[in-house]
Specification:
The complex is a heterodimer of chains A (253) and B (278). Chain A has 253 residues and is an alpha/beta fold. Chain A has helices at residues 52-59, 101-109, 120-132, 148-159, 178-194, 206-212, 229-233, 236-242, 246-252; strands at 13-23, 26-37, 41-45, 66-72, 78-79, 84-87, 166-170, 198-202, 215-220, 222-227. In chain A, the strands form two sheets. Chain A has a six-stranded mixed β-sheet, with helices on both faces. Chain A has a four-stranded antiparallel β-sheet with strand order 2-1-4-5, with helices on one face. With 278 residues, chain B is mainly alpha-helical. Chain B has a single domain (18-270), classed as Orthogonal Bundle (ABC transporter involved in vitamin B12 uptake, BtuC). Chain B is built from twelve helices and no strands. The chains are: A alpha/beta (253), B mainly alpha (278). The A-B interface holds A 56-57, 60-62, 84-86, 88, 91-94, 96-100, 103-104, 106-108, 110-111, 113-117, 140, 142-143, 155, 159, 168, 170 and B 40, 44, 46, 157-163, 165-166, 168-173, 175-177, 181, 219-220, 223-231.
Chain lengths: 253, 278
Amino acid sequence: MSNGIHNSCGLCSIEMKNITVISGEDTLLENVNLTFHCGELTALIGKNGAGKTTLLRTLLGERNYKGSISFTDHHGTVLPVPRIGYVPQHLDFDKSMPVSVSDFIAAAKGGRAVWFGKNKKMKETIQKMLEEMDCGYLADRRLGALSGGELQRVLLALATDPVPDLLVLDEPVSGVDMAGLDLFYKRVTELRDKQHMAVLLVSHDLGLIRQYADKVVLLDKTVVAEGEADEVFATEAFKEAFGFHSGEVTAWK
Amino acid sequence: MEMIYRFLELLPFSMFQYDFMKNAFLAAILIAPLFALLGTMAVNNKMAFFSDALGHSAFTGIGLGVLLGLDDPLLAMLAFGIFLGLVITKVKSANMVSSDTVISVFSSAALALGIVILSASGGFAKYSSYLIGDILTVGQGDLRVIAVVLIIAYLLWALLYNQLLLLSVNRSLAASRGVKVMLVENIFVMMVAVAVMVSIRWVGILMINSLLILPAAAARNITGTTRSYHWTATVFGLVSSVVGLGISYTFGTSAGATMVLAAAVLFFLTYFIGKSRK
């Protein structure tokens, strides 16, 4: 069940206003208006090709768009770019790449080029980051040798350091077992509550969304439904996109 | 320069009695670390085919140089190499056709165009030395150019490596950490183009790509961290270049090809060492 906004200051938010994204002849997003509040977990759903990935890419600054994206911090100051923590769906890199988990994190954190080697302080910082996500033992493993669940924890550790204004999770649990999945979402909700960050989750798992999301956005080029999970699941647009009514969601689960 | 020459003469190798061998040796130990460095990332990003295309495009560069009446076609080669690299990257990112198809189209077109231009302007034969290269014709001016390129490459590598690494793991993740994805990618492509073009006359169009890929590929077999990957690739590059040059001097074989063969031996050795460790 949805349980409202958690530890939100009510001020800081990321706002997408009249966002339109066009690629060649195709309109990928049209007039999208969305606000992500801090301390709130928003789930983005929609059928394939509805523009979910495009929306994420736009937020990440990888897409040209018409409209505006702004970020208001808890002092009420409007800043142009929010700090975004991003957990990708999967990493389709070459698994045999000689890159250790700590190389990867050090590269992401910037500073000295990792082929020189890492200094002691950086090593300690990385160890601490990983331990907070209960995966300190992974530091010296090769990135390509991690299991799905281990990789997600490393990516979450990275995405939340430094603490982002918006944490973006792109279908973050593919290839993760049930126990790992539970752990992952517990950790995400904990972050939402304690660090009061805004979280945007793209997922197909309606059961999980119903359990964890504060707000659900149904996308089909534009926002077609928005609200608490049960409200959105009861709409005609939802039925059209997913082929069943909310009553069936539980049974299907 | 004189000091380096005299130092080389002190070494107990007969090849250092000739100035052209000294120059060749110096060129080899400058080119090897440059290629090892760029090769680590080219292999990470599965760009072996791409750098091969760049090598092939050298012919068009030379052809353009001839058409423009340049004494030294290097500038035309650099310009065309960089242009082609950027165009391939651009077309690839548009995601219209599969990337190996894109690269293949550009590679064959550039190669064919180069051969057409060169064969039209009075016989192709005098350019065939570019195919297998001739490291014995390296002059002091060439050494200076390679040294400058090597220094710039190391500087850029110190500045941009972390971003490149992140990019090779995941583009969107890199973008979310503030990496200017297109810019960094284009700089890397230009670096590869410049490295290939300044050394292609010595190493040869047919061999240049192997020199880029093999040391890094061999290092991958036995390393697990970025640091060891880099330094192992550099050492492998140096060893295969120097040993290859020595063997080619002794047996009168093509230097570029002998270096590549030495690197290939290293690859197979490390492959079996890596396998036996697992």
